[in-house]
């Protein structure tokens, strides 16, 4: 079978420079004012509602969304530049990250007018935050095996089941939850009969239970739903079309620069730490990391251009995420080898944070084994 992998040669247009300079100036001023200290993996762990609201007020959220709903009608490439700078500056962006990346686009694409009018302007302002309700205790890679259900009742649906690894559900307002609206036995296959709902995490019948990390931090949750009533208009898209909608969402979830920049603040600190005249070993190791980063960036820009053109580069996104998450996991390993602990306190902190988050890089958003399977199928070797 001929491969349909497509990475059009792509460069960011010069029109993106204006917004790059603007977001850079904003972030440098915030760092200088002491609003935050740049850290690693902040897109998932750095939840700071004030900071997200400030980004919203300055026009950096909902960049591609219609002005009618508080968006800015700019290109996906302008958004690429903004998120690239936010990540490179290690800003605390977890509150709005999922909302801006996939929940907003999902609601704009599949939501009804009431849902868009109610939620999108608040999302663009950085005032409400969304989580992802996909994984379940026995369903991760094999997402189509989910068992949570929604049953039709008068005026809405009753949701039951358990979601797990739900990042920031304890801080966020909503999640978009994937559930079965038809049993597999009746749906004609396990990929049929699923639907998505926008669910208020403060609804009656929702219990958000913390799952603490090794470090003691609270980032993950288990979300138990017991007869949670969700009104009809909160169904996202078409009943039974949940699988197709989720696959579309994953192209956004897997393709962004957060899949290779999670530990970029550490790489930048490493370059500072070895100084202008590094050893030959340090120069070679860092040079290799930077070269890989540059290559990944080209691929990622190419995927962003495809998304901008309305294509759904699912396989290309899978490839970028596999390569990118391996790179971001190797950065702390190289950093540990090249700079002895105890020399630079801030460097040690960046290394420690990265080492603790790194095991999640190749799991979250789909494991690397699964991603390679997707790529292999597309190449016709599986
Ligand atoms: C930091 C982090 C944040 C997350 N946030 C969220 C969130 O907000 N919302 C959410 O819904 N989920 C979230 N997840 C869950 C994530 O999507 C799942 O962990 C992931 O999909 C893998 O599922 P699993 O953990 O059940 O592992 P499993 O699917 O049980 O996989 C276990 C191992 O088996 C391998 N494996 C499984 N099937 C195959 C196969 N067919 N071929 C080859 N190898 C296979 C996998 O690659 C993996 O190594 C998060 C995970 C992490 C680490």
What does this structure look like?
This protein folds into three domains: 14-129, Acyl-CoA dehydrogenase/oxidase, N-terminal domain (Butyryl-Coa Dehydrogenase, subunit A, domain 1), CATH 1.10.540; 132-244, Beta Barrel (Butyryl-CoA Dehydrogenase, subunit A, domain 2), CATH 2.40.110; 251-379, Butyryl-CoA Dehydrogenase, subunit A, domain 3 (Up-down Bundle). The longest helix is centred in the C-terminal third of the chain and has 29 residues, at 280-308. The model has no long low-confidence stretch (mean pLDDT 95). A four-stranded mixed sheet has the order 1-4-5-8, with helices on one face. Strands 2-3-7-6 form a four-stranded antiparallel sheet, with no helix packed on it. It contains 13 helices and eight strands. The protein has helices spanning 17-32, 42-45, 49-57, 76-88, 94-110, 113-124, 184-187, 242-255, 264-274, 280-308, 314-338, 345-361, 368-379, and strands at residues 130-133, 149-153, 156-164, 174-180, 194-200, 206-212, 218-231, 235-236. A hairpin with a 5-residue loop joins β6 (206-212) and β7. Helix content is 48%, strand content 14%. α5 runs antiparallel to α6 (113-124) and α11 (314-338) crosses α13. It is α+β, with helices and mostly antiparallel strands and 382 residues long. The site of flavin-adenine dinucleotide has 19 residues, from β1 and α13.
């Amino acid at each position: 079978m001929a491969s349909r992998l497509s990475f059009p040669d792509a460069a960011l247009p010069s029109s993106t420079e204006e917004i790059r300079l603007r977001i850079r100036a904003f972030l440098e001023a915030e760092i200088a004012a002491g609003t935050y200290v740049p850290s690693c993996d902040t897109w998932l762990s750095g939840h700071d509602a004030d900071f997200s609201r400030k980004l919203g007020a300055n026009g950096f959220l909902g960049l591609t969304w219609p002005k009618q709903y508080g968006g800015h009608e700019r290109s996906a490439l302008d958004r690429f530049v903004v998120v690239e700078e936010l990540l490179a500056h290690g800003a605390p962006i977890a509150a709005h990250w999922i909302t801006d990346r996939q929940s907003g686009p999902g609601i704009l694409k599949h939501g009804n007018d009431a849902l868009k009018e109610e939620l999108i302007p608040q999302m663009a302002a950085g005032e409400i935050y969304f989580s992802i309700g996909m994984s379940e205790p026995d369903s991760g890679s094999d997402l189509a095996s989910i068992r949570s259900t929604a049953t039709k009742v008068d005026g809405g649906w009753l949701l039951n089941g358990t979601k797990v690894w739900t990042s920031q559900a304890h801080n966020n307002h909503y999640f978009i939850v994937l559930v079965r609206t038809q049993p597999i036995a009746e749906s004609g296959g396990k990929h049929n009969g699923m639907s998505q709902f926008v669910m208020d995490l403060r609804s009656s019948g929702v219990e958000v239970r913390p799952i603490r990390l090794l470090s003691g931090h609270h980032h993950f949750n288990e979300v138990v739903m017991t007869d949670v009533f969700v009104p009809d208009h909160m169904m996202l898209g078409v009943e039974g079309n949940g699988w197709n909608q989720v696959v579309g969402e994953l192209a956004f979830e897997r393709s962004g620069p957060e899949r290779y920049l999670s530990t970029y603040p550490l790489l930048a600190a490493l370059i500072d730490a070895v100084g202008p005249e590094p050893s030959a070993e340090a120069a070679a190791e860092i040079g290799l990391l930077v070269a890989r980063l540059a290559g990944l960036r080209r691929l990622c820009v190419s995927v962003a251009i495809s998304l901008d053109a309305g294509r759904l580069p699912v396989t290309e996104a899978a490839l970028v995420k596999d390569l990118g998450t391996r790179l971001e996991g190797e950065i702390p390993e190289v950093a540990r080898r090249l700079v002895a602990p105890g020399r630079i306190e801030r460097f040690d902190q960046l290394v420690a944070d990265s080492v603790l988050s790194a095991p999640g890089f190749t799991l979250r958003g789909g494991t690397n084994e699964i991603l390679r399977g997707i790529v292999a199928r597309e190449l016709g070797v599986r």
